[in-house]
Amino acid sequence: MTLKTVITGTGRYVPPRVVTNDDLSQWMETSDEWIRQRTGIEKRHWVDEDAPVGPSDLGLEASQIALNRAGWSPADIDLIIFATLSPDIFFPGPGCLLQHKLGLSATPALDIRQQCTGFIYGLATADAYIRSGMATKILLVGAEVHSTGLDISTEGRDVSVIFGDGAAAVCLEAVDSDQDVGVLASVLHAKGSMAESLKTEAPASREWPRLTAKMMEERRHFPHMDGKAIFKEAVRRLPEVTKEALDQAGLTTEDIDLYIPHQANMRINQFYQQMMKLPEEKVFHNIQRYGNTTAATIPLALDEALTRLQDNPEAFMGSLQKEVYAVGEDGARSEDLDSQISRINALPPEERRRAIQARRPIIPTMTIRAETSRRLPKKASSKRSTSICHQPAPAPAVGMARKTKIIAAMPMISRRLPGSRPVRTWRMR
User: Fold this and answer.
1) DSSP sequence for 387-402
2) Which of 172, 214, 403, 421 is a Cys-bridge partner for 138, taking CB atoms 3.0 to 4.6 Å apart?
3) Contact call for residues 320 and 413 (beta carbons, < 8 A)
């Protein structure tokens, strides 16, 4: 058997303050139309100006949701990995701050400072820890507070209109399996030669002192970006790294049910979709609602996609093949999932709501192929089946990363029938 890394819970949190494009137009020369055309962004969430809130605070909210869905307590965590480019303070890092806020005293915490790719670097790092046996349960967090460091002026609008605040967390767990489950492939790249295209220079330890009035007059403490250079590099490299990861995993583009790209710019994602020849329904976007939350974009989008499936299982089922079985712990077949949904939909509204609630908590997984310890129905192919369990279950994924990053995976959800034991569900191909 080989240790594999699976996702057993996800959670997201954004501050309640919503900043629309029209709001920004009151502070700088811009407009809703100008921002939408260039970025696809309609609004974003920013922390309140009156309260000191950092990424560890947002990360705490997201982590508590993910832990609850995974069925973990904070004491179950072997390692915290925290990805951010906007730490609460210069040091110690937000991973340590989050550890304390979770009520832990000695759990190791690791910070990842890889900007937009932070979550993917964190996922690859967590996978390495789990595969090596150094950790069994890892909490991976991506969180940012950008709003307090933006140049809210006409001069800084090219950057300031893009970024939002937010956090998301995933619970990663080891499973012992020889099947193609868990993180199937991850590809990491960096390009230091483009450092001048996107940077924040100050405060800087190479300067003496680290921050001066002159630096601030020169606006070096604000982020600066060469948007055209970043755009050209992203649309060229995203398809390349996607194919690289797919090749490593032994998959094709057709094997992937949902692509979740980094939410940097809607136009980048649209170019990527066209170059990869992907149907629109296979590429998930939420930048229009949150802006670019850098290290938080992918886990935030993943959790939102899974929540949509949870809230609208009928629509979700419409995209799946019809040959579905629900198999109990004893391997006996129960009613198929279409019948389950039809029966629940026929209930009065309040009863229907309670029935859906009774099938929670929903344990999100990302599945391409999955193993099962139970006997499959005769029509099933164990090699190409999808396993879903109410309890933490194998949840394979394909992860891809570089400066601009992407995860390609198939999100699935677990369901518990009202009054029944946990079920295992397979989709036949």
Assistant:
1) -EESSS----BEEE-S
2) 172
3) no
Options 262, 265, 389, 390, the catalytic residue: 262
Residue of 265, 292, 389, 390 marked catalytic: 292
Q: DSSP string covering 106-132, please? A: S--EEEE--GGGHHHHHHHHHHHHHHH
The yes-or-no answer on residue 262 being catalytic is yes
Q: What is the pTM of this model?
A: 0.73
Is 345 an active-site residue? no
Helix (H, G, I), strand (E, B) or coil at 223: coil
Q: What is the CATH number of the domain that holds 233?
A: 3.40.47.10
292 is catalytic: yes
User: Quick check: is 241 in a domain?
Assistant: yes
Phi, psi (deg, nearest 5) at residue 343: -65, -45
> Residue 362 and residue 311: Cα distance in Å, rounded?
10
The domain containing residue 289 runs over which residues? 2-311
CA-CA distance, 326 to 417, in Å (whole number)?
10
Q: Is residue 355 within a helix (H) or strand (E), and if so which, with residue range?
A: helix 349-358
Q: Which of 116, 171, 286, 389 is catalytic?
A: 116
**Structural domain contains residue 339:** no
Q: Which residues lie closer than 8 Å to 352 by C-beta, 6 or more apart?
A: 344, 345
E strand or H helix that includes residue 174: strand 166-177
Distances in Å between the Cα of 223 and the Cα atoms of 38, 154, 198, 292, 314 are 18, 14, 7, 13, 44
d(CA 210, CA 205): 5
pLDDT digits (tens, 9 = 90+) for 216-270: 888 888 888 888 888 899 999 999 999 999 999 999 999 998 999 999 999 999 9
Q: What is the pLDDT of residues 263-322, one digit of tens each?
A: 999 999 999 999 999 998 899 999 999 999 999 999 999 999 888 776 665 554 343 322
Task: Answer for the pair 272, 91: CB distance below 8 angstroms, yes or no.
Answer: no
Q: What is the DSSP letter of 178?
A: S
Q: Give the DSSP letter of residue 184.
A: -
Determine, yes or no, domain membership for 422: no
Interatomic CA distance for residues 185 and 366, integer angstroms: 13
**Main-chain phi, psi angles of 312, to 5 degrees:** -135, 70
Whether the CA torsion 378, 381, 385, 389 is positive or negative: it is positive
Asked if residue 152 lies in contact with residue 27, where contact means CB atoms within 8 angstroms, the answer is: yes
How many domains does the chain fold into?
A: 1
